[in-house]
Amino acid sequence: MTRDQLRAKANELPLLPGVYLMMDKTGQVIYVGKAKKLKNRVSQYFQDTASHNEKTKMMVAHVDRFDTIIVRSEFEALVLENSLIKRHQPRYNILLKDDKGYPFVRLDEKSSYPRFSLVNRTADDGARYYGPFGGRHETRLALDAVCAALRLPTCSRRFPRDIGKERPCLNFHMGRCDGFCRGQPDGEEYRRRMAQAASLLEGRLRAVTGELTERMTAAAEALDFETAAALRDQIKALSVLSKEQRVIAGICADTDVWGAYTSPARSGVAVLHIENGDLLARQTEVFPDAADSEDALLSAVVPQYYLSRQSLPREILLPAAMEDADALAALLTERSGHAVAVRVPQRGQRRALLDIAHRNAREEVERVTDAAQRISGTLRQLQQLAQLPTLPRRMESYDISHTGGDDQVGGMVVFQDGRPLKSAYRRFRVETCREGDDYGAMQEVLTRRFRRYLDGDEKFAPLPDLLLIDGGENHARIAEEVLSGLGLAVPVLGMVKDDRHRTRALITARGQELGIRQTPALFALIGTVQEEVHRFAIAYHHQKHTKSAKRSQLDNIPGVGEARKKKLLQHFGTIAAVKQADVEQLAAVVPRAAAQAVYDRFHGAKTE
Asked: What is the pLDDT of residue 142?
């Protein structure tokens, strides 16, 4: 559709709540949004675009058509928008990272002795899930701390299967576990403590501490001082646990405090998790584009953040009023089973916390921006040094590896914006050139790589901005010849090494050396690329060589069966010695025809 047609269609929309989906010419959804009144919101995109930021202008320029879904309320629009964003992952929406890097804690309450475990996804299996939390290491530390405070087992034994089978493990003797593997304390006490641990994960530290205090008092009044002392130790452990920022890592959070910041290049958010007035953890996320405003950023991110979580705070503090805040609060209250308030404090301690969150968001955005600018600056130095036509954001590097000419392989690594892009690494078995021919092997590897690109293989797209070949002038020249023969134009540089096998300079196919030692950041980057491609090629070679070593190099030679192979090895001792022998020496052990065949295997058939 043309801009006028899109504007006309938008003006025909009803003044009702709903969700709209912007699509490009291929039909792919590139943006999802919600609106209280669809007509007003959607028509704004196709009016005067001077007020739009660069990202919105670019999005509108790619819109070919749009679709809408009318719902009954803002509440439903909020839920539907979040669902559609997760489904389509539109490129122009602000997207939170996928939850695969943020684990959940799973508790199977159906078991007679339930245990906690870390999983990447929730499932509809009747178990209870908490999270997602920060990282696997931090979450494991938190679980260990909770279990240690309540003296619950963290070993690999399973109950009741392993009760009474072995002596208690070291955790029992260290006082970190009460040794449930002995059968005492019993299963009822085990389940009571697991319920307390679950309460801790839900943020109810005071409730658990209060319950333990009541039991301790009752035990003391009954003169059961041993039980009272054990409960006292648990209470003490929990009091320490509440102050351990590095251990809790956001699991016990009554209040979340949000900050947002947007710069000309990037935007980001910070979430502070507060429990009992103590700051326990901080989470941040930086997005690659600038947002229209900090308020718009929060409106886009906050619903995504909470609608994918199981454990929810009781209070969410925002620096400014968010669109659909009431609908979000109602939805989170319904999901969590307790009241969740979304507030915008104007003064007092809560306002001071918002200032801290804003400062955290700003510092994180500026830190990441500075790192990106450093990488960009290094790439610009490389572009200027080698007079490259474009900034070398995507670089490919190649190396050949073999052992004495045997089992030749090639490795290809990719660096995107100065960082390894391991999903794009590729490995090649050298198949057509003679063993030990590094130049021929490089020619074969590069030819196969770029033919795959020309054949439309998506695994070998896109073309790089620069090729870095592990080798000197001749290797670079071979790479240029391959590219020229295929009608491709990609800059090529060789990486020249010193006597310690470290890259000391770059070199062109015409032999011009480009010094990099005087530029430390560039020297470090090229050195990292050279080490990575060398490591990757050697690792593949070792893998292949280990497999081939299990096969004899005398296999499949005409006229040489098992008996003659045995004779040759008994006479010469090693395969290397067989390779060095001439036809006359070989014929002294096996018939001449077989000797000639063995010689041809290792030296190539003799031609007149």
From this structure: 67
